[in-house]
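Protocol step 4 of 6: record predicted structures for both targets in the notebook before any analysis. Target 1:
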Amino acid sequence: MDQLFDVIGGICLIAGALFALLAGIGVHKFEDPYSRMHAAAKSPTLGLILVAIGAGFTIRTFSAIATVFLVVVLQLLTSPVGTHLAGRAVHLRVDVDQDGPDELARDEADQA
């Protein structure tokens, strides 16, 4: 049974590392800031969750699993907030061509 947990943990660790690698490639290759933010937010979060699950399967102690759980919860709480703030900063500072109407600029003009 321990070998099965080690194999599952190893697979999760490798998959998480690959997602983190894909995020780095996406940040480097994408051209506009919004695509880069998407690549920098979604893929590393999934990669961290997979690495955390893999670490939990590999280490198998209560303190390690509790720490990994706390790391995952904090990542899931902070990553959307950070990405949202970065998106607003990009919107205010950089002129990016958009596919549709600029709803944020419209809402900010309505409030002023």
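Target 2:
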Amino acid sequence: LFFYFHKPINLNVFLFPYMLETLSNSQLIIAFFIILSAYIVRGITGFGSGLIAIPLLALMLPISLVVPMVGLLDYSASLGHVVKLRKNIQWQYIAILLPFSLLGVLLAMYLFNTIDAHLLKKFLGGFIILYALYTLLSIKTHSYKSYFWAIPSGLLGAFIGTLFGTGGPFYIIYLQLQGLGKTAFRATIAIIFLLDGSVRITAYGFNGFYTEKLLLVLSICLPIMLIAMYVGGHIHTNISHKKIQKIIAIILLFSGSALLFY
């Protein structure tokens, strides 16, 4: 930052050709900090990176760039969690979920190529606000074990996740309804994100979203994500998990409002 403010250079020239005409140096630094913050949170809580990064980055960049990019970063983050917690995965809750997730991805990819980008941004803002209010009001889901919940959770999680990269809340609620323990919950949600991400990334690839320019952006963002995940995973803090969720919800409330009314 000291170097930037005292000797400005055009970072866009050699880092982000795609953003040459859309991002200033200051916006580029802000984007870096958004990604860093989002994945520190992911390292602490095991989720939430897309909910933070996507609405904030979408204020500066097209959703068609942001969602596939964050999707690949989230996939990499989930892979690390799965390797670490693989023995605690509850596969019985996943098998019934996958067919409906696949259907949700196919439907979303059709809409991704037909719905106006401005309208997509409004829908994303509204969804983010609703989820932030859900968290702030501390709405609790009681244990209600039933495979039926895999149908709406799989469809909506994959549908919203493919369009906006933020389908995690539906999967989280689904597993909360099954009454899983803390470790089993983290392990199972990680593999759901990984499998869901595999389908979405494949769909993005077949539809031409992963261009050379976007992969160049990813090559710069990946080290930032890895550093943030490492920091988040080793943070020792007195802030409770519940307070962290409240802070995230407040951030989401502001970012969702910005998307909805911008």
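Step 5 preliminary note on target 2. Residues 64 and 199 are 17 Å apart (CA to CA). The chain has 13 helices and no strands.
Proceed to step 6 after PI sign-off.
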